[in-house]
């Protein structure tokens, strides 16, 4: 332990601050000293938030002695080099801009890291002025390690799924070659590829909710979505976040509609056709409902098909069966119109 002569001015000032702090908040400080939750107090009068109190639980968590913490700026606890985002979150918390826990990576005395759910609360004097900040730490390192492991497993699963889809595609092509019409083989390949793209998008989001704009962008790119020579598509609608099941189904529906447009509709035969995609979300008694409209124009005159193929059955049956939705296909001579109505469940909290 350092002698009185060895102590810096900052250390002596911090100890005086602690003594005053103990007298002002006596019972509370005693409770803070004995609680199992790691906590510190900082001086709100200094912009660098120097520590004026650290309980035994915090010292045990961080590995520092009390003499090594008092008087030092709060930043010394951050993982070095701390990310800009971490520092921004900490400063926002001290400024009162954080409404709850923030998960921050800190550094122990021995150099090891730990993640903690950190809550910063102001301590006011009798006049209402903020004189200290109370900071509590809950060690979530194990939780973060488990999350990282799950992310690794999910990435591996996504990789294997992509390999499986590629294998299915190769086997099917080899099996159907010579035994089925070339158009059938191409249609099957296209559907597998669309499914693979949807899986890839969802995998990049850890199989959480994805935006409807992301789905249209990923699936419609091969059909000239961003072709600078001619604007084949017009897409309007606020970004709606969809759960994986809804995203997969809509991805396949967009693929079937675009494939049909490329063969027979607005995107066929180098036609100067156009596809307008619009949607809006409406409130209902049960939650929210998505209304989406796919409308083609500028292509060859449209005639109703003599029989329903796989694409039509997928579009009309898939949504109704999988998503409790409704689909209406209108074969207007000026261009195919597809109207989709489906409930939009609230995405799970991420």
Give a written overview of the molecule.
It is a single chain. This protein has 350 residues and is α+β, with helices and mostly antiparallel strands. The chain folds into 2 domains: 9-139, Beta-Lactamase (2-Layer Sandwich), CATH 3.30.450.20; 143-343, Heat Shock Protein 90, CATH 3.30.565.10. 43% of the residues lie in helices and 24% in strands. Strand 11 (326-332) and strand 12 (335-343) form a beta hairpin. Helix 1 crosses helix 2 (26-34) and helix 8 (212-220) runs parallel beside helix 9. The longest helix has 36 residues, at 141-176. The model has no long low-confidence stretch (mean pLDDT 81).
The major β-sheet equals: 5 strands, antiparallel
State the share of residues found in helices, binned by percent.
Answer: 40-55%
Order of H and E elements: HHEEHHHEEEHHEHEEHEEHEE
Class computed from helices, strands and strand pairing: alpha+beta
Low-pLDDT runs of 5+ residues are none
Distance between the first and last residues' Cα: 47 Å
Which descriptors would you attach to this protein?
350 residues, alpha+beta, Beta-Lactamase, Heat Shock Protein 90, 2 domains, five-stranded antiparallel beta sheet, 10 helices, 43% helix
Tell me the layout of helices and strands:
Blueprint: H1 9-24, H2 26-34, E1 38-43, E2 51-54, H3 56-62, H4 66-69, H5 84-94, E3 102-107, E4 113-124, E5 130-139, H6 141-176, H7 182-204, E6 210-211, H8 212-220, E7 233-236, E8 241-242, H9 244-263, E9 274-284, E10 287-297, H10 310-323, E11 326-332, E12 335-343
Parallel strand pairs: 7-9
Antiparallel strand pairs: 1-2, 1-5, 3-4, 4-5, 6-8, 9-10, 10-12, 11-12
């Amino acid at each position: 332990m350092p002698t009185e002569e060895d102590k810096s001015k900052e250390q002596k000032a911090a100890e005086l601050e602690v003594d005053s702090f103990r007298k002002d908040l006596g019972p509370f400080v005693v409770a803070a000293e004995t609680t199992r939750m790691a906590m510190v107090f900082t001086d709100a009068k200094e912009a660098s938030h120097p520590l004026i109190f650290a309980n035994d639980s915090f010292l045990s968590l961080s590995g520092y002695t009390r003499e090594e913490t008092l008087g030092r700026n709060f930043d010394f606890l951050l993982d070095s080099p701390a990310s800009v985002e971490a520092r921004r979150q900490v400063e926002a918390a001290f400024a009162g801009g954080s409404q709850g826990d923030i998960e921050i990576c800190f550094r122990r005395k021995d150099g090891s890291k730990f993640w903690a759910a950190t809550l910063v609360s102001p301590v006011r004097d009798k006049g209402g002025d903020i004189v200290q900040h109370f900071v509590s730490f809950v060690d979530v390192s194990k939780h973060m390690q488990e999350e990282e492991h799950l992310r690794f497993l999910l990435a591996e699963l996504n990789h294997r799924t992509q390999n499986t889809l590629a294998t299915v595609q190769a086997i099917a092509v080899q099996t159907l070659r010579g035994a089925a019409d070339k158009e059938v083989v191409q249609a099957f390949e296209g559907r597998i590829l669309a499914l693979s793209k949807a899986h890839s998008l969802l995998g990049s989001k850890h199989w959480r909710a994805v935006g409807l704009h992301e789905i249209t962008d990923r699936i419609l790119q091969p059909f000239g979505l961003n072709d600078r020579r001619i604007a084949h598509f017009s897409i309007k609608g606020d970004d709606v976040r969809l759960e994986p099941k809804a995203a997969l189904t809509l991805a396949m529906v967009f693929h079937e509609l675009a494939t049909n447009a490329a063969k027979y509709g607005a995107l066929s035969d180098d036609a100067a056709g156009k596809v307008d995609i619009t949607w809006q979300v409406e409130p209902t008694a049960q939650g929210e409902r998505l209304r989406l409209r796919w409308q083609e124009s500028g292509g060859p005159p449209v005639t109703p098909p003599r029989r329903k193929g796989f694409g039509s059955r997928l579009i009309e049956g898939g949504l109704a069966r999988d998503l409790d939705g409704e689909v209406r296909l209108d074969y207007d001579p000026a261009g195919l119109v597809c109207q989709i109505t489906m409930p939009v469940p609230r995405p799970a909290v991420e």
